[in-house]
């Protein structure tokens, strides 16, 4: 049996490309996406327009000739971000959005926001200028259970911030709970949510049952099965508020396979094959294009990509490397745990 699915070229609205040897190794694996929102959590973080422009140039240099990818840069919001700098970087076409990490929430988030009152002037300026805020939605309060941190963030932080800043366009990044789905659904057209590939596939058992599997550990951590099903339902529904942000987050195995290992799943190489399989399983192949190629662009006020990709369902599974090499390091590719019959055709 051969089935062919032709959709507008997809975009990745949440992507980590890193820097240096890691950037060189991973960027080609995202080359077939159209636009990608590039996360700014480098060391040190991308906090100025000049740094974002330089980083963009390094990304373009790391892409193969003919790559479709157009990096959409972000600034890393800190307690001391100057609203004027954000507005200037946006006006000059350097940045597409601003990223909010609560300080300490995840990888390289030490410079993140500690006090939401201090960033209020930036958020107000962004609301006025229509600049989206991409939010890592987890509280960092050590008293809150890690599986509850997204739901508590919505109540304690996100909802109050949105009420205090009318008109602020917010993307709830990588939602992992039915609470996140419900909150996004209840919002207006200034609210949307990205969903990763891996959170559509794994629940917390993948990380913890029968042995600890660091390659499935990411943040926000995968939750129980009912939450995964809520995410599947949201992603495959066609609802314009939900769209793809892979959060492909490569780490060297030497950093993940540790007593205290890094968070992140590297899904860039096989994301489209996995998504096609997932949407097929749910009888929603006709809605893959909305999730991966249309809804995100619409939220960001951009047209869909002009060109298209072809996915072909074959009897033999598509094969991907189980790992790639970055400098002296190995980076393990996300294993969805099922065969991938949808092949992304290369031109
Ligand atoms: O799993 C994650 N990895 N979650 C994040 O929020 C950050 C990311 C990273 O940069 O590795
Ligand atoms: Zn991320």
Q: What does this 3D model show about the protein?
A:
- With 347 residues, the protein is an alpha/beta fold.
- It has a single domain (4-344), classed as TIM Barrel, CATH 3.20.20.
- Helices cover 31% and strands 17% of the residues.
- The chain contains 11 helices and 13 strands.
- It has helices at residues 20-26, 49-62, 83-91, 120-129, 149-164, 178-186, 204-208, 225-236, 253-256, 271-281, 288-299, and strands spanning 3-8, 12-15, 35-38, 70-76, 95-100, 133-135, 170-172, 191-195, 242-244, 308-313, 323-326, 329-332, 342-344.
- The chain has an 8-stranded parallel sheet.
- Strand 4, helix 3 and strand 5 (95-100) form a beta-alpha-beta unit.
- Helix 3 packs parallel to helix 4 (120-129).
- The radius of gyration is 19 Å and the shape is globular.
- The model has no long low-confidence stretch (mean pLDDT 96).
- Bound molecules: (4S)-2,6-dioxohexahydropyrimidine-4-carboxylic acid (DOR) and zinc ion (ZN).
- (4S)-2,6-dioxohexahydropyrimidine-4-carboxylic acid binds next to loops.
- Residues 16, 41, 106-107, 136, 218-219, 249, 263-264 line the site of (4S)-2,6-dioxohexahydropyrimidine-4-carboxylic acid.
Biggest pleated-sheet summary? 8 strands, parallel
Mean pLDDT: 96
Associated small molecules: (4S)-2,6-dioxohexahydropyrimidine-4-carboxylic acid, zinc ion
Helix-strand pattern, N to C?
Answer: EEHEHEHEHEHEHEHHEHHHEEEE
Helix content: 25-40%
Individual helix count: 11
């Amino acid at each position: 049996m051969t089935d062919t699915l032709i959709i507008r070229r997809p975009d990745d609205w949440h992507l980590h490309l890193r820097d240096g040897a890691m950037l060189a190794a991973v960027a080609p694996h995202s080359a077939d996406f159209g636009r990608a929102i590039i996360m700014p959590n480098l060391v040190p973080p991308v906090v100025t327009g000049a740094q974002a422009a330089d980083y963009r140039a390094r990304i373009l240099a790391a892409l193969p000739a003919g790559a479709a990818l157009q990096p959409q840069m972000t600034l890393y919001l800190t307690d001391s971000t100057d609203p004027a700098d954000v507005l200037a970087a946006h006006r000059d076409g350097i940045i597409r959005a601003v990223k909010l990490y609560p300080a300490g929430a995840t990888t390289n988030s030490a410079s993140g926001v500690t006090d939401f009152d201090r960033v209020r002037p930036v958020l107000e300026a962004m609301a006025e200028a229509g600049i989206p805020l991409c939010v890592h939605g987890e509280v960092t309060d050590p008293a809150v259970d890690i599986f509850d941190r997204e739901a508590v963030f919505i109540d304690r932080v996100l909802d109050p911030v949105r009420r205090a800043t009318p008109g602020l366009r917010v993307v709830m990044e990588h939602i992992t709970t039915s609470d996140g789905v419900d909150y996004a659904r209840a919002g207006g057209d200034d609210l949307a949510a990205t969903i990763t590939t891996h959170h559509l596939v794994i629940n917390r058992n993948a990380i913890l049952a029968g042995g600890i599997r660091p390659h499935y550990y990411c943040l926000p951590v995968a939750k129980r099965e009912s939450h995964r099903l809520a995410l599947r339902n949201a992603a495959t529904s066609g609802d314009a508020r939900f769209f793809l942000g892979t959060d492909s987050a490569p780490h060297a195995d030497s950093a993940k396979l540790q007593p205290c290992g890094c968070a992140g799943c590297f899904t860039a190489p096989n994301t489209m094959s996995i998504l096609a399989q997932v949407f097929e399983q749910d009888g929603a192949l006709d809605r893959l294009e909305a999730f991966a190629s249309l809804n995100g662009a619409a939220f960001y006020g951009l047209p869909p990509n002009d060109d298209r990709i072809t996915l072909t369902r074959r009897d033999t599974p598509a094969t991907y490397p189980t790992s790639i090499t970055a400098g002296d390091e190995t980076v393990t590719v996300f294993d969805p745990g099922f065969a991938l019959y949808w092949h992304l055709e290369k031109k």
